[in-house]
Amino acid sequence: MNLDQYLSEAAAIEREGTAALSAATDVDALEAARVAFLGDRQGRLKSLQESLKVVSKEDKPAAGKRFNEARAHLQSLHDERKTVLGRARQVGAKEDLSLPERRAWKGAKHPVTLVIEEIEGIFRELGFTVAQGPEAETEWYNFGALNFPPNHPALDAHDTLYLEGGGLLRTHTSPVQVRTLQRYAPPIRVLIPGTVYRRDFFDASHAPAFAQIEGLCVDEGISFVDLKSTLNLFAERFFGASRTRFRPSFFPFTEPSAEMDVQCGICGGSGCPACKGTGWIEILGSGMVHPAVLEAAGLDPERYSGWAFGMGPARIAISRYGIPDIRILYDSDVRFLEQIAGPVLSGAEG
Amino acid sequence: MNVSYQWLKAFVPFDETPVQLRELLTAHVATVDELVALRQDLAPIVIARVVEEAPHPDSDHLHVTKVDAGTGTLLDVVCGAPNVTAGKVYPFAPTGTLMPNGLKIQKRKIRGAISDGMLCSARELGLGDEQDGILELDVDVPPGTPFLRALPVGDTQIVLDVGANRPDLLSHLGVAREVAAIARKSLSLPELAGAGEIALPGATRDPRAARASDVNVSVAEEGLVRRFMGVVIRGVRVGPSPDWLVKRLEAVGSRSINNIVDASNYVLHELGQPTHAFDLGKLAGPSIVVRRAQPGEKLVTLDGSERALNEEMIVIADAEKPQAVAGVMGGRDSEVTDATADIFLEVANFDPRRIRNARRALGMSSDASYRFERGVDVEIAPVALERVARLVVGLAGGHVDGAPVDLVYEPLAPRRIPLREKRVATLLGASVPADEIATLLGSVGFKVGHDLSVEIPSWRSDVAGEVDLIEEVARLRGYDSFPVELRPFRPTAVGDDPQWLTGRRVRDMLVGQGMIELRPMPFVAGGSDYVRVLNPLAENEAYLRRSVLESLARRAEHNLSRMEGNLRLFEIGSAFEPSKAELPAEELRVAALIMGRRAPAHFSDPKTPEFAAWINYGEWDAKALGRLIAATAYPGAAIDVTVTDTPEVLWDIRVDGKPTGTVRRVALDAPVWAASAFGVELSLGVLASGAVAPRGESAHRKFESARPVVTRYRELPTTPASEFDLALLVPEAVRAETVEAVMRRVSGRLLERVELFDRYVGSGVEAGHRSLAWRLTFRHAERTLRDREIETRRSDILRALADELNVRQRTG
Ligand SMILES: [Zn+2]
Questions:
Q1: Cα of B66 to ligand 1 centre, how many Å?
Q2: Is A147 found in the same domain as A30?
Q3: Residues in Cβ contact with A4 at an 8 Å cutoff, skipping those fewer than 6 apart
Q4: pTM to 2 decimals?
Q5: Contact A296 B568 (CB under 8 A)
Q6: CB burial class (10 A; 0-12, 13-18, 19+) of residue B290?
Q7: What is the ipTM of this complex?
Q8: Number of domains, chain A
Q9: How close is the nearest chain A Cα to the Cα of B299, in Å?
Q10: Are residues A121 and A69 in the same domain?
């Protein structure tokens, strides 16, 4: 074998070996290619090495050098591919990775809870904590202590469910205001979420039991400006409202009383069906705590003053999530509750 | 309360448009819920000027005209009215207008002459019955101006949301008073169009009885009525009311009946004082007695219903029987009819609570009862009496016979409330100068003396204290006039309610576990041991739930009916038990219900029968959930989940030894394909409902915040553990927990963990037994355990189990 023949044989083996090693897509194929080219027994390089013996003496250094080059190249290519393919085998490169993952059920808070928690979060930053009280209440805590005159038209808005054996189901969370003021001395800044009851038949916008959330702030020197400023800040944070307005209202337990509106987010204040053409959306009722309420709770109204507000998280939830009928909130259809909580993954939802 | 925009204008010469008025009323007085444009059928009608007029060449009564309707070109209009005159202005209906009578105006030829639109008569516009041709107008507006804008024939009904504290706003006078104040205009009682001039003698006053003409008027006992006025009018002719009156009543949503009733209704809406006209000819005696109804008495009211009366109701009776339910509704017998000639006009003032009780007991409401319930100004009665009398005489003829009577009423000294300028500033957070306060209050009828001593007008019975005056100042000045500036505040003295914190922790944990929160209604079908609602909305939901799980079960059934069978539901809410105390016993509970698949299906799920049994929630999941909820709700407490003997309850959950909850199977009304349901319910504590302190007192104490429960660090072992497995034949009567207890006792302190990893029943296991296998792990904190130590424990355990429980090692 002359040198030219040897060199071209070496080049062919190197080229074919490179192709075979590169083409291997898994460790087994790579091993087969290694045996074919680098194998100790029938490897192509082994026979090339054997052929060195029949090369003339003066050509031997050049042929030997070329042999070493070819072997080194194929060996290093093999080692490199082996590392890559070995890693690929560990992560299962053979699987179709577009298959879906294993899932667990996703939990969901009720939409009304989501609204309450968001409101709670904002008022916490303003120094409020949460107070609670019973849902079955006495007439005094629900009405008397809150300055409802007996047998007064103000009671018409509080159609009450009475309990056999005494008591009633609270018509608002305000009794907790009185309980809190009796139990702890001011300064008081509390938020009162809870279930309240009215003798309202179920319809698209009424339920006989629903959530309410109230806030109460009582201390020395608390004023109407504090009420406005705090609720204004809340509206800004919660509704992103650019404008609010306060208008006179009536609640027996506050004086002055004010209703707060935020500018209609749909029409921007120019008037649309959602805001009945007024440009405003009614959000909450509020007012300065009536001196009679402070007195009922044993506080001196000359020393202390305060403000309170109340709103309906269910009403907020139906407008926020675009729910057409309030009964959907209470039906407890899990498909609805999962929908509001959001999908676990695409494809899971129809 | 419906208010007419035009009617208000008769009281106050304000310039605001209805929309502007809505803004002002809402900002300062009471919210305007709605503006209802009336006579919108006249919206297309415009003011037009007749520029040229000539007789129609082919007609002896038609005219051809050129009309300027503000369109830029003169329109050819044929007109049949004799009074059409060049240079005058008339209402004009352009082509395309749909007229109130349904006729559509079209461009057409009338005897060869083009007519493009129509000049209108009052009759064609529904504005009266005049037949004298087209309506000549005396207005100075450019042609093309909408007719409704140029003339007050249209109106806007303002729907005002009047709070229960402001009965003074239940009349046009009251609303006009506020409009005058905020628009800074004067207020005057409008002239009564068509009212008669009468010489009304001074009223005969008496605490109990007097005669009006030949009618004996008396009040049977004290306290029935605050004021009772009446007058006799003779010789009336009952008939239809004039257009202006019909229109006024329509504008507030009231229907015209006849001139007498309409006069009464007009004054009701004008002054807020209800009045009632009796047909004097139907009254026995003739006499009028204000008395309690007698048991068994009945009255057919104006609406045709027979009403059973009781002694708590006040009636206006004649010598024989009731003729009206005082303050609520008149009787049909003495109703004014076409045949009525003489009337007795009643103008009274009743106690709000009595009227409210009667209204509720009778289940009927009227414009009168609505106002009396809220309180009518006792001083307005003579004004109302005079105005109704003048209207009746003017519209129906007749004459006042004799002096009116005025019973019971004694003028009271005006009430005065001192107002402190400083208090205004403290409560509102911005100082309002004394003279501004005086001006604001004065504008709505308060008389403000020196040192801000305020005399309360008779129509403001709601103003009872200084704070009510401060509200007046705030609203009249405008809530928007007070600054928005967050001021420093002291931190609250009260920490979070512990039950709220617990509920929140449990909720977050359950949602993390894939559970879905519900907020169902707490009403159930119930029974004798439930708390009953006295006035339930529905008889099948007349009770309060004793268990929150009950609600979840019903909601699970609802979901099953919608083919949803994989349910993980929970709720945190109240449950109620009957109690001997003033209120039912109320407890905050958490309940959870699980059924169906433990996880969504995955392609890699095994397809074996064992897997099929494994994939649905089972009692062991419920047991785990129960323990997890309890551990979350009561951190640091000892949680025991113990086997019970009752069939429906699987386990009791004990917290520090106290029974606090249960884990159970839940029986559902479920379709056949539904999986078994399991439930957990745990108390989060009693909701204290006793009085905190006596009424009007406080029982202040320091808020005690709960100490957080912490687990202290223990050094992690560095020595190796030793373990062995025990496969045991356990008789069915012996509980696994008993076996474990023996293992722990015998093993002593070195036993680190006991894990039951297999249960087998079947071939190779003796009847009445099951094979249970445990792995026991031992460890010494300082050194490696020797084989012999482990071996000794193994044989000691086996011996003790055999001796004490007849539990043997499983062989083969
Ligand atoms: Zn809008």
A1: 45
A2: no
A3: none
A4: 0.85
A5: no
A6: buried
A7: 0.88
A8: 2
A9: 25
A10: no
